[in-house]
Amino acid sequence: MGTISACIFDLDGVVVDTAKYHYIAWKRIANDLGFDFTEEDNERLKGVSRMTSLDILLEIGGVKLDQETKLKLADKKNKNYLEYILKMTPEEILPGVKDFFKELKSKNIKIALGSASKNAMTILNQLELTNYFDAIVDGTHVSKAKPDPEVFLKGSELLKVTPANCVVFEDAEAGVEAAINGGMKCVGIGSPEVLGKANKVIPGFIGFSVAQLNF
Ligand code: BG6
Ligand code: MG
């Protein structure tokens, strides 16, 4: 087992369940355009950037739009989404996450964020978690989407920890691939069927501890 010096966390679906708010916000856009958008469709948007999410949504509805209209719609969706995330409280932090952060701090293991979201700072502030992070890399800092490892490699650079000594926590298949592509270990949060490429898959953080980072 290598030494684990840093843990890099995806945000949406790992630290907090924002998928339900993304869903309501995208559904409003779909309904305005005259088609339905189901929770099953929403699964395809997990871990995917805002503009790619819109492309998937429009493909589902069979709608073609020019770039300017698409940018306006993405902006409208984000305004819908902000209505919900600005009401979030620390009670929405997923179970076990904060205890695990505290354990990492007590063991001098660094904590970073590696998220595709451009709303990451807003969400961390709403959850009162910002101060736990030694480095934050989000959708405003990267140009290449997961499975490109850019977001995680930037995190390891900021922390000055070599990728082999980093563990990434991810709920999306593309995120697990990004971690592996970056030469990092990965713990999948969710089901082994989807996240089978991870070194370990757990359903959530309840009862999870540093002792289980034994790859
Ligand atoms: C990811 C989510 O973390 O962030 C995706 O899993 C989302 O569903 C993406 O599309 C971008 O988020 P935002 O907040 O920048 O629209
Ligand atoms: Mg995620």
Short description:
Helices cover 42% and strands 12% of the residues. The protein is built from 9 helices and 6 strands, in the order E-H-H-H-H-H-E-H-E-H-E-H-E-H-E. It has helices spanning 19-33, 39-43, 50-61, 67-85, 97-106, 120-126, 150-159, 173-181, 192-195; strands at 6-9, 110-114, 135-137, 166-170, 185-189, 200-202.
Task: Give your account of this protein's structure.
- By secondary structure, this protein is of the alpha/beta class.
- It folds into 2 domains: about 5-15 and about 90-210, Rossmann fold; about 20-85, DNA polymerase, domain 1, CATH 1.10.150.240.
- The protein contains 9 helices and 6 strands; from the N terminus they run βαααααβαβαβαβαβ.
- The protein has helices at about 20-35, 40-45, 50-60, 65-85, 95-105, 120-125, 150-160, 175-180, 190-195, and strands at about 5-10, 110-115, 135, 165-170, 185-190, 200.
- The chain has a 6-stranded parallel beta sheet.
- The longest helix is centred in the middle third of the chain and has 19 residues, at about 65-85.
- The radius of gyration is 17 Å and the shape is globular.
- The mean pLDDT is about 95.
- The structure holds 6-O-phosphono-beta-D-glucopyranose and magnesium ion.
- 6-O-phosphono-beta-D-glucopyranose binds next to α3.
- Magnesium ion binds near residues 10, 12, 46 and 172.
